[in-house]
Amino acid sequence: MLELREYQQNMIESARSHMRERIRRLLLCAPTGSGKTAVSTYIMSESAARGNVGYFLCHRIELLEQTEATFQKAGIDYGVIASGREYSEGKGTYIGSIDTVRRRLDNIPTPDLVVIDEAAHCIETNTWGRCVGAWPDAWRIGLTATPRRLSGEGFSGVFDRLILGPTVRELIDMGWLADFRFFAPPGVDPAGLHVRAGDYIQAEAAALVDKPRITGDAIDHYKRLSDGKRAVVFCASVQHSKNVAAGFEAAGIPARHVDGETPADQRRQAMGDFRDGRGRVATNWG
Predict the structure, then answer these.
(1) Residue 154 confidence (pLDDT)
(2) Do 142 and 194 belong to one domain?
């Protein structure tokens, strides 16, 4: 069974309080690493115990598999709705790939509870919004670390109430997250970059940082501060990510690149290599 932390229990009690007020569409916001999946798993297990049907919706195979591990730890009997996975009828709880769920809307049970992972993706007019919109009477819980969109669009069309968890600093002070230090390469000045939809224009940012000197500086820092340990590098473009991975490889440090278009089997292999230590560094974009 899951052992919940005090702040997770507080988030669950806040959700219960809103549900008692018949507020059906809740957005849970807490930092990455705070255990939002554990919170929603507990809520889904309670719902299943009452005989309800619940869906946990993901958009990446890695997230689906991570959720499976959490459900297994909690002892939840579940089925999977995803391409290439056998569908088990009669389950009270399902973990679903959003694209597969959308294609099978007419052939799967109507849920009583829907949990939406990475809820910033959910907009009324996109695949996520149309999918969950097919179940207007279901309780809806979104999970996010960032309760705002770069486009400036709000969440009012899909969620009615925001539940705030602890901040990153509070989690660090409680000992649940590691503290951090910043290191920056010299000579990188973003002052000339233009902003679009609240963020730097991607092509301009990539051109600024995708340089051998900067990659070399990052590799030198890695060797000095964490040689032999696993590291994740967030890059500014697909090509930047590939170049950084190649730079680490050339320095004798096994690296794996993934991006939003990497085929699922290659992503799984790369992440497996990273977990097992065959890849010390994971570079990514998108």
Answers:
(1) 64
(2) no
Which residues have a Cβ under 8 Å from the Cβ of 27 and sit 6 or more positions away?
A: 119, 141, 142, 144, 147, 155, 159, 161, 162, 163
Judgement on whether residues 224 and 152 belong to the same structural domain of the protein: no
The CATH number given to whatever domain includes residue 196 is: 3.40.50.300
Instruction: Kindly give the residue spans of alpha helices, DSSP state H, lying in 6-108.
Output: 6-20, 36-49, 61-74, 98-103
Are 135 and 235 found together in one domain?
Answer: no
Give the number of other CB atoms < 10 A from CB of residue 144: 23
Contact (CB, 8 A) for 144 and 27: yes
Whether residue 33 contacts residue 8, with contact meaning beta carbons closer than 8 Å, is answered with no
| Cα separation, 41 vs 72, whole angstroms | 10
Does one domain contain both 133 and 237?
Answer: no
Q: Which of 30-34, 246-250, 277-281 reaches the highest mean pLDDT?
A: 246-250
268 token code pair: 């799984």
The span from the CA of 116 to the CA of 277, in Å, is: 31
Domain count, the chain: 2
Parent domain of 237:
190-285
Is the domain of 119 the same as that of 31? yes
Per-residue HEC secondary structure of 107-156 comes to HCCCCCEEEECCHHHCCCCCHHHHHHHCCCCCEEEEEECCCCCCCCCCCC
pTM recorded for the entire structure: 0.83
Q: Is 180 inside any structural domain?
A: no
Distance CA 52, CA 62 (A): 26
